């Protein structure tokens, strides 16, 4: 299973070599999927470009939502697809809103 990925022109991940990944990773690619600020808490979802599936079986985990600040600070979720990342971002935002009301 590949370790390094770049986004193609359609925004889909493609496996690549370390050399091509390094060159591509420093170019002007926007890997931010979504960023929401809720009462000073940041919920950020990004393309990671490196497979974060520690088991190395199944599909690679290439997107991540992370919370910065508030009661859920440090919470994170990882996803196989951009669609899952969008849905996960919205779900995490709902969790942050609920936690801020408690």
Highlighted features:
102 residues, alpha+beta, 4-stranded antiparallel beta sheet, two-stranded antiparallel ribbon, 27% helix, 31% strand
Explain how this protein is built.
The chain is α+β, with helices and mostly antiparallel strands. It has one domain. It is built from 2 helices and 6 strands; from the N terminus they run ββαββββα. The chain has helices at residues 18-25, 82-101; strands at 4-7, 13-16, 32-38, 41-47, 63-68, 76-79. It has a 4-stranded antiparallel beta sheet, with helices on one face. Strands 1-2 form a two-stranded antiparallel ribbon. The mean pLDDT is 88.
Quaternary form: single chain
Q: H/E element string? A: EEHEEEEH
Helix-strand category = alpha+beta
Q: In which order are the strands of the major sheet placed?
A: 3-4-5-6
Q: Given the structure, what is the number of helices? A: 2
Radius of gyration: 15 Å
DSSP strand content: 25-35%
> What's the helical proportion of residues?
25-40%
Task: Provide a compact summary of the structure.
With 102 residues, the protein is α+β, with helices and mostly antiparallel strands. The chain has 2 helices and 6 strands; from the N terminus they run ββαββββα. It has one domain.
Helices and strands in order, then pairings?
Blueprint: E1 4-7, E2 13-16, H1 18-25, E3 32-38, E4 41-47, E5 63-68, E6 76-79, H2 82-101
Antiparallel strand pairs: 1-2, 3-4, 4-5, 5-6
């Amino acid at each position: 299973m590949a370790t390094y990925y770049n986004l193609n022109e359609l925004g889909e991940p493609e496996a690549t070599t370390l050399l091509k990944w390094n060159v591509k990773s420093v170019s002007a690619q926007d890997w931010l999927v979504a960023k929401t600020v809720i009462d000073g808490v940041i919920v950020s979802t990004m393309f990671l470009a490196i497979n974060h599936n520690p088991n190395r079986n199944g599909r690679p985990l290439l997107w991540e939502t992370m919370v910065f600040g508030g009661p859920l600070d440090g919470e994170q979720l990882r996803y196989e697809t951009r669609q899952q990342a969008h849905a996960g971002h919205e779900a995490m935002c709902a969790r942050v809103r609920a936690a801020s009301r408690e």
